[in-house]
Amino acid sequence: MQFISISRRLTEKFSGEQFDAHIDAERQRVRELYKDGIVRSVWSRKDTGGAVMLLECADEVAARAALESLPFAQRGMLEVHILPVAPYPAFF
Questions:
Q1: Would strands 51-56 and 39-44 be described as parallel, antiparallel, or unpaired?
Q2: What is d(CA 76, CA 12) in angstroms, rounded to the nearest whole number?
């Protein structure tokens, strides 16, 4: 199954320095999830700090577990929404 995750950094609760302290670990974990085939695509948000990711997982529980493995998420620094998606029916 595929999922879109939309995350936003909680900049109203955490400083730029707090995000900077964990950004390298965050990027490394996203690279690991990409290498493992879980993250299929990732984009930086231009409207606010955060990311949009296309995930490939068995179910929403697995998608949530993958996102919860991110260092920012582990520290409560992200707001994350997960949307299940399917191919657009007009193409079939």
A1: antiparallel
A2: 12
Residues pairing with 53 in the sheet: 5, 42
Indicate if the alpha-carbon torsion angle 19, 24, 27, 32 is positive or negative: negative
**pLDDT, one tens digit for every residue, the chain (92 residues):** 999 999 999 999 999 999 999 999 999 999 999 999 999 999 999 999 999 999 999 999 999 999 999 999 999 999 999 999 999 999 87
Q: What type of residue is 83?
A: L
Task: Quote the tokens at residue 66.
Answer: 């993958």
For the domain covering 2-91, report its CATH number.
3.30.70.1060
pTM above 0.90, yes or no: yes
Tokens 């007009």 belong to which residue? 90
Domain extents for the chain? Answer: 2-91
